[in-house]
């Protein structure tokens, strides 16, 4: 965004240089990425001055040349050879001094040097208007009527002073600053000066000979629509002062009417549009949507097919403009236009954004509307435009000002804690300073207590809706650089609360996973619907579709983390990076019967070898338990309680695996991805995958550590070998064991599993170790044997186990 420094100074008193002002703006969040000089005439007439011809004599060796002496305000007059037929002594002329550069109209620039012309020294050049780029005439040198002293810069005489232009990197949340007045509002708080809106008190309705009625059929898309007619205008070039300001911010002047709408847009941030009033058939404006597929030719000459959600500005016969985005070719202002209807409206940001994306149209108007404009600026901007049109194009206001505004957009109400403001800022700045900053920013304090301020935030502050947003506003004006930092940096102790910040827990778990050799990835939440086609129509129907997608490959929100991770695996494997351990915390989306659901998942991927080949040992391929160990430790670190382990069911992505379940909720799933899924994604390797329900786990997180005295009595280990059916899991054996013995049994571990021809088909053998301990006394053989016998009996009874001796 380009902002003219001279223009700014018309709206607020600034006693600082452009560089100082730019630094202030950058500190307040309006980053000035550069400051460049704008010259109305290329080169700014630098080195070109007013001089006086003292003598003029014919060149002895050239009939068409004259040798002159010219006073240019220097200690000695300059001798200049001039070929103009109208040069004469006593004239005030324009002189290009030695080492200055001329930028002639339509020609290449050239530098003035001290030279000899036909043997006579020439120390400069007396110029015609085309030679300095301010006109096209080359009939002779310019002869000036002025009393300005010799040596006065020519730019001062012609009123062509340069301007400084700020190039501001405007962030999407600062829609309020997308104009010169918006920037002036920030300077108002930074400089403690009052920003002045342009005066519109002279606006009046001259007659009502050209009324235009307005009907808004969709108040959701267009909450406010206003307009007025100006008749008897003459379309032509804008005055020089207006063209200068528009050119300074990178705009090319078009005509006086269009230039006025652009001028007010960049002055006040309110987009306007001018219709040729004679082309508004039926004398009525209708704001509505039209039938999908309707063709409409925009100002750029492109014929477009409209969508059912495009808000159109129509007359009695059809569309004239795409609301908030672009005007139509047939209703625009031309050289023959004598009456105009000026539109000033507030369009809902979502409607404008959707239409702009659908038609790939980005204009200065849509840029502001889709971020949010000020509904309270609509009428002032309209009056300002009408007055400017009358000033630069003549005419009279020939209708009442129409303002369709059925339900006023209210200010946002925010409750601000003074104590929390100081906490977030990191420094006590005082309630009075807080109130002063808010007032300067246009945020009103409607109620005040010792601890809180109730604030009324105007609609142009579209990004300020919460307490934290208000604190950010205060801090950026107070100045980040004004926050003091102690010589010895330290952090204050913050007590741990029962429900710690989710971000802290998340960071701790992410650090643990990374410490186990996993690399974090961040992938796009928008993905390709084709990935879900093999899963069937039901799966596709549950996807959340992107309405205005820019690419066929990115048309839905992901329902699973699987495919985005496989894309990363494929890219790395194709580049010979085959041993991979990756993880990602991201969001997934789905919809059912029009209701949308968003949740966070933690996904982990393992491919290739878990240990690299070395002289000491061969490489070891990653296996189920390598991933399961990390998942189990994550669950353990979250202290979320005990989980039931079940065989994986109803999972369209994993061929086999297990699920951790708590109260009928699947907390985590892990196993090997189905080969059909990986082949579809062009990943040939076996992929171990885990997915954790992160939202559920954070909700169940318990920040409790239980400390116990070290046991005084020794523990005892006993081993047991048993044969069970192949489908019996270790988790089932473990549950039976702890159900039988709750007091003495401290742990159960499996240290061997055997399936083979030495035992019956359909069976497998487990070798288990049991750790027993009594915290009150030393265990006796009798107690140990009794405990182990009870365990064996229940294994036989409940799971059909055969105890191997």
TrEMBL record:
It is found in: Cytoplasm. Its EC number is 6.1.1.20. The keyword ATP-binding applies. Mg(2+) binds at residues 463, 469, 472-473. Keywords: Aminoacyl-tRNA synthetase, ATP-binding, Cytoplasm, Ligase, Magnesium, Metal-binding, Nucleotide-binding, Protein biosynthesis, RNA-binding, tRNA-binding. Residues 409-485 form the B5 domain. GO terms for cellular component: phenylalanine-tRNA ligase complex. One of its GO terms (molecular function) is tRNA binding. SUPFAM superfamilies: Anticodon-binding domain of PheRS (SSF54991), Class II aaRS and biotin synthetases (SSF55681), Nucleic acid-binding proteins (SSF50249), PheT/TilS domain (SSF56037), Putative DNA-binding domain (SSF46955). GO terms for biological process: phenylalanyl-tRNA aminoacylation. Coiled coil: none annotated. It catalyses: tRNA(Phe) + L-phenylalanine + ATP = L-phenylalanyl-tRNA(Phe) + AMP + diphosphate + H(+). CDD domains: tRNA_bind_bactPheRS (cd02796). It is an enzyme of class 6 (ligase). It holds the Pfam family tRNA_synthFbeta. Residues 711-804 form the FDX-ACB domain. Its cofactor is Mg(2+). Residues 42-155 form the TRNA-binding domain. Belongs to the phenylalanyl-tRNA synthetase beta subunit family. Type 1 subfamily. This is Phenylalanine--tRNA ligase beta subunit. It comes from Pontibacter actiniarum. The gene is pheT.
């Amino acid at each position: 965004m380009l902002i003219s420094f001279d223009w700014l100074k018309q709206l607020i008193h600034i006693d600082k240089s452009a560089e100082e002002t730019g630094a202030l703006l950058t500190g307040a969040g309006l980053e000035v990425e550069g400051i460049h000089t704008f010259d109305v005439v290329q080169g700014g007439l630098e080195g070109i001055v007013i001089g006086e011809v003292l003598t003029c004599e014919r060149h002895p060796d050239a009939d068409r040349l004259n040798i002159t002496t010219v006073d240019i305000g220097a200690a000695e007059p300059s001798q200049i050879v001039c070929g103009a037929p109208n040069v004469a002594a006593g004239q005030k002329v324009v002189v290009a001094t030695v080492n200055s550069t001329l930028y002639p109209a339509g020609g290449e620039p050239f530098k003035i040097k001290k030279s000899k012309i036909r043997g006579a020294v020439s120390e400069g050049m007396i110029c015609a208007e085309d030679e300095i780029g301010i006109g096209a005439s080359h009939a002779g040198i310019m002869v000036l009527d002025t009393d300005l002293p010799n040596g006065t810069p020519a730019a001062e005489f012609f009123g062509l002073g340069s301007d400084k232009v700020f190039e501001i990197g405007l962030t999407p949340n600062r829609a309020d600053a997308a104009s010169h007045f918006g920037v002036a509002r920030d300077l108002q708080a930074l400089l403690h000066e009052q920003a002045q809106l342009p005066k519109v008190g002279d606006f009046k309705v001259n007659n009502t000979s050209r009324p235009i009625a307005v009907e808004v059929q969709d108040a959701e898309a267009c909450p406010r629509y206003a307009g007025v007619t100006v008749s008897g205008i003459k379309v032509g070039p804008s005055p020089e002062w207006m063209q200068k300001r528009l050119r300074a911010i990178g705009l090319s002047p078009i005509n006086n009417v269009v230039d006025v709408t652009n001028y007010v847009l960049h002055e006040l941030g309110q987009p306007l549009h001018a219709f040729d009033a004679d082309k508004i058939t039926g004398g009525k404006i209708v704001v509505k949507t039209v039938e999908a597929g309707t063709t409409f030719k925009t100002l750029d000459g492109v014929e477009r097919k409209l969508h059912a959600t495009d808000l159109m500005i129509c007359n009695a016969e059809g569309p004239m403009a795409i609301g908030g985005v672009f005007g139509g070719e047939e209703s625009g202002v031309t050289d023959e236009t004598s009456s105009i209807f000026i539109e000033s409206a507030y369009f809902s940001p979502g409607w404008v954004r959707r239409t702009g994306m659908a038609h790939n149209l980005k204009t200065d108007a849509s840029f502001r509307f889709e971020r949010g404009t000020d509904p309270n600026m609509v009428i002032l901007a309209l009056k300002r435009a009408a007055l400017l049109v009358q000033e630069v194009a003549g005419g009279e206001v020939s209708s009442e000002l129409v303002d369709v505004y059925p339900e006023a957009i209210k200010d946002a109400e925010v409750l601000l804690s003074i104590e929390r403001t100081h906490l977030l800022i990191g420094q006590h700045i005082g309630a009075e300073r807080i109130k002063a900053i808010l007032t300067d920013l246009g945020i009103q304090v409607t109620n005040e207590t010792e601890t809180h301020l109730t604030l009324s935030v105007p609609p142009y502050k579209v990004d300020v809706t919460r307490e934290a947003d208000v604190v950010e506003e205060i801090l950026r004006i107070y100045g980040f650089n004004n926050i003091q930092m102690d010589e010895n940096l330290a952090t204050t102790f913050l007590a741990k609360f029962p429900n710690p910040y989710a971000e802290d827990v998340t960071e701790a778990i992410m650090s643990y996973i990374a410490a186990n050799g996993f690399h974090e990835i961040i992938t796009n939440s928008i993905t390709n619907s084709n990935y879900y086609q093999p899963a069937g129509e039901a799966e596709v129907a549950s996807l959340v579709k992107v309405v205005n997608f820019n690419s066929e490959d990115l048309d839905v929100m992901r329902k699973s983390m699987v495919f985005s991770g496989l894309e990363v695996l494929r890219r790395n494997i194709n580049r010979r990076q085959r041993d991979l351990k990756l993880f990602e915390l991201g969001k997934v989306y789905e919809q059912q019967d029009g209701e949308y659901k968003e949740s966070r998942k933690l996904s982990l991927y393992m491919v290739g070898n878990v240990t690299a080949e070395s002289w000491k040992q061969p490489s070891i391929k990653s296996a189920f338990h390598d991933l399961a160990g990390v998942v189990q430790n994550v669950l353990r670190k979250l202290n979320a309680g005990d989980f039931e382990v079940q065989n994986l069911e109803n999972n369209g992505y994993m061929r086999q695996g297990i699920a951790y379940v708590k109260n009928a909720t699947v907390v985590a799933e892990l196993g090997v991805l189905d080969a059909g899924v990986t082949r579809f994604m062009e990943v040939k390797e076996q992929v171990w995958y885990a997915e954790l329900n992160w939202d559920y786990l954070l909700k169940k997180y318990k920040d409790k550590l239980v400390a116990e005295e070290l046991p005084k009595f020794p523990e005892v280990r006993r081993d047991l070998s048993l044969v069970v059916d192949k489908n019996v899991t270790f988790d089932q054996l473990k549950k039976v064991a702890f159900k039988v013995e709750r007091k003495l049994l401290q742990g159960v571990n499996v240290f061997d599993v055997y399936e083979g021809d030495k035992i019956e088909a359909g069976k497998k053998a487990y070798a288990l170790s049991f750790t027993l301990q009594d915290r009150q006394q030393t265990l006796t053989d009798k107690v140990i044997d009794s405990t182990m016998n009870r365990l064996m009996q229940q294994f036989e009874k409940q799971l059909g186990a055969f105890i191997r001796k």
